[in-house]
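Run log // design_07
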């Protein structure tokens, strides 16, 4: 039985190892995507310190738009420390950048580094679009089986459990590589399982929610926005940005929430989408959305992830944030980073172990054939 699992583990690694190693290596970099992108693009915008009030932003935005329709305004982020507004001019759209400290229109000093978006494309599609996306997804599915078979092969039994973590540094390069492959792999096994499984489930939110619901059951909270009663009471909001933010913050009951974006739909019958961040960037369930009727100012619905049941949150929000290390603080992200490095190292160490065993078998076969020939 062990030989069968060993052969299965070997072929799983050989078939999906290269893609899994690439996904692990790029994923480790993307754990710190925001910080890396902000560092690469520092000095891109000629900004002034400070943050203008919403009323000043509203006036500055209307003046910069020049009568054109504002579709979206986004507040400064560590990556792009400026107000960014999407404007519709005729049938086309353009983006305006406003200084966070003064509200005046500015231009980026340079186009910005495209390294991080390129790494993201490698991680998700291997630069191969739809086909590449499925290659990555299927390879991660295969890698999940490889991780499980590897853990089965590692298991030394309860009596010799501690020996499973031994690294024999003085027994030669082959033994050292073998021990590193086993020990590092089993130490990172729980994290690699989480990273790989969440990566596979991200394109399938319904499946993620079904799995989560079978584990976490909660009948008290609604499972989808459609089952959340709509608040039809008046929010007292007009179309100015400061009024929209004031109404949204009052309804969420969190005066310390930070504005993230406001979406003004082109359809006159649609709602304005006010998004407030109630948790640090990257943390699960960190954004509350307040939908306000653009014609009357009435509140149509408050979409607070904390109002959904745990399974719905896990299936629709936390899967992605868990995958990128957003559920927790910097310590979790560093753990994710180390796990990704170990996942990338599993390919070369596993390949060295396989090649050494293959070479030894070929040498033994050659020697046996030579003896028989004699």
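design_07 sequence
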């Amino acid at each position: 039985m062990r030989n069968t699992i060993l052969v299965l583990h070997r072929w799983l690694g050989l078939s999906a190892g290269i893609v899994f190693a690439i996904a692990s290596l790029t994923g480790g970099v993307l754990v710190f995507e925001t910080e890396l992108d902000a560092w690469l693009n520092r000095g891109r915008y000629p900004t002034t310190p400070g943050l203008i009030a919403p009323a000043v932003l509203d006036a500055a935005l209307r003046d910069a738009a020049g009568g054109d329709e504002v579709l979206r305004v986004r507040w400064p982020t560590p990556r792009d420390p400026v107000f960014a507004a999407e404007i519709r001019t005729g049938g086309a759209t353009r983006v305006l950048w406003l200084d966070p400290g003064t509200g005046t229109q500015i231009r980026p000093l340079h186009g910005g580094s495209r390294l991080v978006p390129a790494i993201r494309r490698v991680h998700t599609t291997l630069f191969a679009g739809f086909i590449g996306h499925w290659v990555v997804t299927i390879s991660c599915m295969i890698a999940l089986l490889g991780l499980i078979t590897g853990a089965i092969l590692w298991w030394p039994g309860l009596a010799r459990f501690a020996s499973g973590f031994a690294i024999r540094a003085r027994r030669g390069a082959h033994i050292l590589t073998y021990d590193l492959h086993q020990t590092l792999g089993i130490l990172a096994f729980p994290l690699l399982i989480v990273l790989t499984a969440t990566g596979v489930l991200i394109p399938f939110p319904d499946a993620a929610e079904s799995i989560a619901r079978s584990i976490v059951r909660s009948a008290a909270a609604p499972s989808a926005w459609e089952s959340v009663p709509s608040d039809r009471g008046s929010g007292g909001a007009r179309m100015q940005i400061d009024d929209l933010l004031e109404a949204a913050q009052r309804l969420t009951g969190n005066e310390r929430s930070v504005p993230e974006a406001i979406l003004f739909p082109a359809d006159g019958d649609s709602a304005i989408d006010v998004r407030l961040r109630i948790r640090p960037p990257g943390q699960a369930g960190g954004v509350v959305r307040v939908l306000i009727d653009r014609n009357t100012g009435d509140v149509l619905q408050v979409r607070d992830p904390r109002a959904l049941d745990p399974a719905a949150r896990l299936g629709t929000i936390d899967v992605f944030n868990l995958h990128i290390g957003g559920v927790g603080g910097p310590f979790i992200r560093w753990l994710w980073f180390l796990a990704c490095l170990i996942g990338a190292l599993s390919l070369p160490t596993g390949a060295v172990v396989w090649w050494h065993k293959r070479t030894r078998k070929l040498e033994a076969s050659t020697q046996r054939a030579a003896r028989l020939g004699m």
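The first helix runs from residue 2 to 30.
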